[in-house]
Design brief:
Number of helices: 2
Shape: elongated
Helix content: under 10%
Structural class: mainly beta
CATH class: Alpha Beta
Strand content: 35-45%
CATH architecture: Roll
Length: 126
């Protein structure tokens, strides 16, 4: 069965909404990419209007912004320290936006969306 991003059939109180017919292709969703640590692997996904989106499945480096020097550096990822999206992502080393990652340059916070942007951008955490 397809993943749908349509409005649910019931409200939070349990009231039934009026049925609006079958699922539409515009309401289609996809499985999350769950970006892991390892040798780089990407996936190209076709979107609406023939647009392309690059999903980062596995990555080992991060584009790190040092706010003091205003320079970008490539840093190697060691492990995921904290992930506010899901506490189980920490032990599985899954990276999402807002995750705190340990690198060879120190702890960084991810500011991009790896499953949507195809890159991992981050800033140093003081």
């Amino acid at each position: 069965m397809a993943i749908s991003q349509a409005r649910p059939r019931r409200s939070s109180t349990g009231h039934r909404y009026k049925w609006l017919g079958p699922k539409k292709i515009r309401e289609l969703g996809r499985e999350p990419s769950l970006t892991a640590i390892g040798e780089k692997k990407m996936q190209c996904v076709r979107g609406r209007g023939n647009n392309t989106k690059y999903r980062l499945l596995v990555a080992e480096t991060v584009n790190l912004l040092d706010k003091k020097t205003k320079k970008f550096i490539k840093a190697k990822i060691k492990t995921v320290v904290d992930n506010p999206a899901n506490r189980n992502y920490v032990r599985r080393n899954i990276m999402t936006k807002g995750a705190i990652v340990e690198t060879d340059k120190g702890k960084v916070r991810i500011t991009s969306r790896p499953g949507q942007d195809g890159t991992i951008n981050a800033v140093l955490v003081e």
